[in-house]
Every structure is written in structure tokens, then in C-alpha cells.
Structure to design on (251 residues):
């Protein structure tokens, strides 16, 4: 569950994503908690946030074990993406405090989306990035796709989504999505050192810079009416069930 640890007299907020045994895959409750955590940070005195995953991984995507309970009905699927997932991501995007991501191991799907909300991304040289939901029979939600396309680039999002590609850290670094690489085992230290450095600078200037960056990047709002009409489709059901049954999907 995402939670806050404050260090350095409250100047540094460390947020850790944790779902033991599942490479920190995001449960629905974790999305709601993520939103609450970043809304709390926005109202607090922290000067920088360090976002990391537990046990050597950032986040492997969504917790697919929960999916059959809500994904096959359009209304509940829309609520999940527009309220829960986007609620957490939007709280990160609206946070005026600089966010540094320490990325190790798997950074898939939801992990990529959360990384896109961070200002500076530091990854282990052996980290892996992707959104292989083509194997699960469903597309990326519109707001989430727009987020990833803007932060990671059109070429990256097309390869991840259309070819279900899992990209090495060196590739996404070369394309500019990851700003820094660090040797395996040294990512947490490198990210914390950078976060502490940022926390030593003027906090008002940092918050104003982030607000201006949001204004500059603002674009026309998306129309998401009908975006989840595929909820009950055969492909969607087959992709999820095949994953849970540990077999190859038949599309």
C-alpha cells in the first residue's frame, strides 16, 4: 500500500509502493490510497517526494486477480479508470512538490503511468519497462495513454501497446524517458541523494515552476464518452481469464 515516510525534518517525503509477492502490482485500494497520499503531500511542508517500490521492483502493473470482479461491465470499468486510477495519477500530476522516481526491476503498465507523473526518473540498468496489455485483450484508457504519450513519447507508447514490447532501461534512457541510469543496487541511494539535493532548494520556486510547467503543457480536454464500451467484449474476458489461468489467450 502506498504510504508516506518523512525524513530530514519533514523536507523529504518517501512514498513506497508495496504489494508483497506481486511485484507491487496496484490494487484498487492502492490507487485510492495513492490519491490520498499525494493530496496530503500537496497540503504539507515536504520539499521533494521520492517514489519507490518495495523489494527490488517499482510496480508490475495492475493486480489482475481483482479484474474479473469489475472489468467486464462498462460502468464499473469506467469508474475504475476515471475515478480510481486517474484520481491517483491526477493527484500526482497536480502535486506542486517535485517528485523523483527510483525505478528498479519491473515497471509495467500502472508503474509506467506513475513514473510518467514524476519529474525526474532514475532507473537501474537492469530495469524493464512496458505495458503488454495487448496480451490481456484490452486497450489503455484514454487519459492514461495521453499521459504516457506525452511523457514517454509516441514511439515508446506505440511499441509498448501495439507490440507488447518490454523495453530495457538503456532503450528508454536513450529515448529520453529516463533521465539517469544507475547500477543495479545503487538506484535507491542515487535517487535519495538527488531528492535531498532538491529539498535543499527554495520550495516556493519549485512549486511555482511545477505550476508553470503544467500550464505550458495544458491541452484540450479528452472526450471519454464511450471509451469503455468494450468492457464486456469477448477479447477482454479471454485476455483476463487466460492470464489468471496461466495459459495462452485465444483471440
Amino acid at each position: 500500500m502506498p504510504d508516506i515516510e518523512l525524513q530530514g525534518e519533514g523536507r523529504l517525503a518517501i512514498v513506497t509502493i508495496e504489494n508483497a509477492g506481486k511485484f507491487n502490482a496496484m490494487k484498487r485500494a492502492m490507487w485510492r490510497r495513492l490519491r490520498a497520499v499525494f493530496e496530503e503531500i500537496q497540503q504539507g511542508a515536504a520539499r521533494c517526494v521520492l517514489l519507490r517500490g518495495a523489494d527490488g521492483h517499482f510496480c508490475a502493473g495492475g493486480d489482475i486477480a481483482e479484474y474479473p470482479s469489475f472489468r467486464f461491465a462498462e460502468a464499473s470499468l469506467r469508474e475504475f479508470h476515471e475515478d480510481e486510477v486517474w484520481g491517483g495519477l491526477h493527484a500526482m500530476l497536480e502535486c506542486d512538490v517535485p517528485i523523483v522516481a527510483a525505478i528498479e526491476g519491473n515497471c509495467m503498465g500502472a508503474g509506467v503511468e506513475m513514473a510518467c507523473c514524476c519529474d525526474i526518473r532514475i532507473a537501474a540498468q537492469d530495469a524493464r519497462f512496458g505495458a503488454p496489455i495487448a496480451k490481456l485483450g484490452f486497450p489503455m484508457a484514454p487519459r492514461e495513454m495521453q499521459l504516457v504519450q506525452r511523457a514517454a513519447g509516441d514511439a515508446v507508447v506505440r511499441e509498448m501497446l501495439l507490440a507488447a514490447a518490454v523495453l530495457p532501461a538503456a532503450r528508454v534512457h536513450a529515448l529520453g524517458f529516463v533521465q539517469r541510469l544507475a547500477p543495479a543496487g545503487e538506484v535507491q541511494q542515487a535517487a535519495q541523494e538527488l531528492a535531498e539535493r532538491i529539498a535543499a532548494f527554495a520550495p516556493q520556486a519549485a512549486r511555482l515552476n511545477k505550476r508553470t510547467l503544467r500550464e505550458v503543457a495544458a491541452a484540450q480536454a479528452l472526450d471519454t464518452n464511450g471509451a469503455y464500451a468494450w468492457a464486456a467484449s469477448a477479447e477482454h474476458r479471454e485476455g483476463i481469464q487466460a492470464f489468471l489461468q496461466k495459459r495462452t489467450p485465444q483471440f
